[in-house]
Amino acid sequence: MISKCLFPVAGYGTRFLPATKSMPKEMLPVVNKPLVQYGVEEAIDAGMTDISFITGRGKRSIADHFDISYELEHQIKGTGKEDYMTSIRRVLDDGVFSFTRQREMKGLGHAILTGENMIGDNPFGVILSDDLCVNEGGESVMAQMAELYKQFRCSIVAIMEVPEDQVHKYGVIAGTSMKEGLYRVEDMVEKPAQGEAPSNLAIIGRYILTPDIFDILRRTEPGKNGEIQITDALLEQAKNGCVMAYKFEGQRFDCGSVDGFVEATNYCYENIYKKEQG
Ligand code: G1P
């Protein structure tokens, strides 16, 4: 029912320098696929086949990745090497891709607002591809959220419990428990200082947003780190209507950090790549 998914991919990836000096961090390979392809496959799996990227300068290779490469196709046609193209060919067959540039880095909320004309007046998913989510043998995280949306028809954020000393890295929610793993959001703080977090339930990079978020974002003042924060806009939605927080089933790897990236690589090698190779 939700057909659109937004991918903010304008960030610099400074933690991976020098690898990201002339290459977008989203194109770093986790085993044999660029990080962003995992996120796009997740969106498509959830029925969100209309994929919109918020890009920036130096990110052209993302657009090239989600397009045909005629020369390569010609070169490998009829050889065993075509098998290597199976996953990306499937993505290209199933998805439609749009791109717009965020000219200034003013935060995640600003990036999402930049996507307004690609999204229009529709509910939509947001995937931060730095967070690689897997749920082997079960529904993908975005598919789980899309299912919940059918029931609640309001914005939904994915959450997980994190250790107290990690909460300062995340948007953190407080809410009323509706049932196991599901909360109605009452408070939300972006990257709270130690001791000021309302809970240890951290938002990870999966959102479903209702389109009224755009008007809210337009008037949201810069918050934490001087950036327009989606967390602040969502808090307004929660106060005036409803936002749900959902403890997803599956595993999430923080590929925005070197440690998390290596963990994801090891996991995907053992549990996805090796299986695919038979
Ligand atoms: C963003 C959000 C934050 C969320 C996090 C999840 O922060 O602002 O609320 O917890 O993604 O990865 P970033 O990691 O981009 O600084």
TrEMBL record:
Domain Nucleotidyl transferase: 10-267
Record-level GO BP terms: UDP-alpha-D-glucose metabolic process
Pfam families found in the cross-reference section: NTP_transferase
Domain of life: Bacteria
Keywords per UniProt: Nucleotidyltransferase, Transferase
Entry EC number(s): 2.7.7.9
GO molecular function: UTP:glucose-1-phosphate uridylyltransferase activity
Catalyses which reaction(s): alpha-D-glucose 1-phosphate + UTP + H(+) = UDP-alpha-D-glucose + diphosphate
PANTHER family xref list: UTP--GLUCOSE-1-PHOSPHATE URIDYLYLTRANSFERASE
Family the entry assigns: Belongs to the UDPGP type 2 family.
Known function: May play a role in stationary phase survival.
Protein's UniProt name: UTP--glucose-1-phosphate uridylyltransferase
Lineage: Bacteria, Pseudomonadati, Pseudomonadota, Gammaproteobacteria, Cellvibrionales
